[in-house]
Amino acid sequence: MKSVGFKEWSLVCDALGRGEQSIILRKGGIAEGREGFSFQHREFFLFPTFFHEQGAKVRIASANLPEAHDTITIRWYAKAEHALRIDSLRIAKALAPLHILTPEVVRERFGYKDEGLHVAFLRVFQLSPSWVLQNERRFAGCRSWVDLPPPPDMKMRPVVDGAAHQQLRSKFDRLTSNLLTPDS
Length: 184
Prior knowledge:
This protein is α+β, with helices and mostly antiparallel strands. 22% of the residues lie in helices and 32% in strands. Strands 1, 2, 3, 4, 5, 6 and 7 form a 7-stranded mixed sheet that branches.
């Protein structure tokens, strides 16, 4: 188990942990470095963030925004089964059934700086017990990856059973392979 965290909106982490979302769409933070963002880690803890988060930017009925605290509770671990960069807004829009972001957010992220998005299809696991960390200054900033201390002993169970996960993966593969044509 790698001890690296992937910073993502708390509401998105929760949706991934409930099995309501199975992909991450990422452009990258301001502090990603010269090379920009990439899914450089294939396994990681989902590190919930509260900065920039707004309930109006997700498509869920009850988007109760949790408040930031002195501690960070990590409840989920993820394995990126497939990561790619998409250069088609049509593909980005077609992936809507696999995430909770509004179409406006997807369009905004797609068009930020150069056009395109990094997408990863995930297998998410619930941690037991949850891992509580002190919120430290080193976790701050507009970057996607944070180094974490060694994790405690914990158990993991998939949030989506094998058959449902395979259906989601098939849908992801279909959407990303059938739409690999230029935008119209």
